[in-house]
Amino acid sequence: TNLRVTPIYIICQGHDGCFQSPPDVDSSIDSACSRIAVGAKLIQSLTAEKLFECGVGRKTFQLEHEVNIKKPECIVFKSNLNVNKARKMRQADLWSHFGRELMLSDLGSNERKFLGFISCTRFKGTDIDKPMTHDEIISFTEAYAALGGGGLALFGTACLYTWPTSIKDIIPKFLDSTPVNTRRFMDDSGYRGTLGGCFATTLGSVFHELGHTFDLGHTKDGIMGRGFDNIDRVFLVGERRSSLTKDNMNNYNGKPVQHSTVSLQRNISVTMNVAEPLRVLGPRSK
Question: Pfam families of this UniProt entry (predicted)?
Fold first, then answer.
C-alpha cells in the first residue's frame, strides 16, 4: 500500500524556521526535523504494540520515507502564509489554511495523512507568578495548534525543545524533572510543571490528534481520552520511574502499567467520521 503518514515542518513566510527554545537548545530546522522524526517513530511503534495487545498483530501505519526512500524523514514545507498573520490566527483557521495549502501543493494526495508542526509558534511570556490553567497558557501562545481530522493533524512547536533528537535521548527526556520556566516558555505538561511532563503530554497529544485523522473518536480513557498524558508510562516502568518522575497528576506506585494506562480503543473500526478538526479534550485539574 502507498498509504502513509507524512511528517511536515511548516515554515511560514518571513520566519527563519527556528522554533522557540532556551538559548542552550539547538532550535534549527534540522533539529526540529530530527525531533519530529523521532516522535513519529515512537507513535508508529506504540501503535503496533497496542494493536498487538488487542489481538490483531503488530500492525501500524507507514511513514513517508518508508514508502518513498527519496523523501526525508520530515519534509520542510514553505508556506505562503505570513508569520505575523499566522500568529494572529486561531488554531482552527490555521488547520484549514495549511490543510488546503498542502493539498494544493505537489505533496497533495489522498494517500497521505499529514503530521504538521508550525515553526513559528511562540509563547509570549508572562509576569504572572500564580499557576495558570491550560486555557490561560494557550492565550499567551501565538500560532498554537493541537487539532486533527481529515488528512491533517496540526501542532504548534512551543514545547518541541523538550523532545529528543535521537533514540538514545528518549528515556532521559521522559525522566527530565527540570521545572519549566513558565515565565518564558509554554508549560504543556498536564500540570506536572517539568520538561519531561511537557514531552509526555505533547507527544501523547500528537498521537491523539493523529488518531482523529484515522477516524477515531474520543473515548473515556486511553490515547483517545486524557490517557495520552501518561504515554511516558509505556516506556518507563518500575521503581526508577517512580522515584524520578512522581508527580501530582500521575502518582505512580511502582507497578507495571503498560497494559492499563495507555491504550487504543478496543473497537478498531471507524467510530467517527471527522470532517472538521476535533479539539483535544480539556486538561484535567490537579
Answer: Metallopep
Does the residue 281 lie in any domain? Answer: no
CA pseudo-torsion sign 251, 249, 21, 161? positive
Torsion of CA 218, 224, 226, 227, to 10 degrees: 150
Produce one character per residue of 13-50: b if its CB has 16 or more CB atoms within 10 Å, e if not.
eebebbbbbeeeeebebebbbbbbbbbbebbbebbebb
Report CA 6 to chain centroid distance, whole Å.
14
Burial class (CB in 10 A: 0-12, 13-18, 19+), 59: exposed
Its domain, for residue 96, covers 4-276
Q: What is the C-alpha separation between 225 and 276, in angstroms, rounded?
A: 18
- Which among 167, 168, 134, 141 is positioned nearest to 249, based on CA atoms? 134
* C-alpha cell read off for 200: 509526555
Alpha-carbon gap, residue 217 to 93, rounded angstroms = 21
- 3-state helix, strand, coil split of the chain in percent (to 5) is 35, 15, 50
From the list 202, 223, 220, 201, the residue with the least C-alpha distance to 211 is 223
Q: pLDDT tens, 159-185? A: 999 999 999 999 999 999 999 999 999
Q: Is residue 121 part of a domain?
A: yes
Q: Which amino acid is at 35?
A: R
Summarize pLDDT for 269-283 with one digit per residue, the tens: 333 344 455 444 444
User: Per the domain annotation, does 285 fall within a domain?
Assistant: no
Count of domains for the chain = 1
pLDDT in tens, 120-151: 999 999 988 888 999 999 999 999 999 999 99
Q: Looking at the domain assignment, is residue 218 inside a domain? A: yes
Helix, strand, or coil here: 19? coil
Grid coordinates in use for 204? 501523547
